[in-house]
Design goal:
By secondary structure, the chain is an all-alpha fold. Helix content is 53%, strand content 0%. The protein folds into two domains: 29 residues, no CATH class; 55 residues.
């Protein structure tokens, strides 16, 4: 058991809720994480997802389906993002799950 566990036991034995809270809160606090901060905001990713769900013809594109390259270009032209690579768009869409649902979403008759 770590040092925090012993402190928690001692606080609980003392019977004070305030003492327990003082031990638990720091243990549950989010610790700083390594790595760089996110490049795109949640709003930007939502805009990209909405664009990917829209028909390309509505944006004046001469294609019937989006490619990551065309999505990256269109997102930049709309000002949704300052810049984004087609590879990043492709990874986001793969990870973000523009996947067909496993069951029909329409009501069964």
């Amino acid at each position: 058991m770590g040092r925090g566990g012993y402190r928690l036991r001692a606080s609980a034995a003392a019977g004070g809720a305030q003492e327990v809270r003082q031990v638990i809160c720091p243990l549950l606090a989010a610790a700083p994480r390594s790595g760089c901060p996110a490049t795109f905001t949640a709003e930007q990713l939502c805009q990209l997802m909405a664009l990917a769900c829209a028909a390309p013809e509505a944006s004046g594109q001469p294609v019937t389906q989006w490619t990551p390259h065309e999505l990256a270009d269109e997102a930049g032209q709309r000002g949704s993002v300052e810049s984004i690579s087609p590879r990043t768009v492709g990874r986001f869409l793969q990870r973000g799950g523009l996947k067909a649902p496993s069951v029909s979403l329409l009501a069964q008759q």
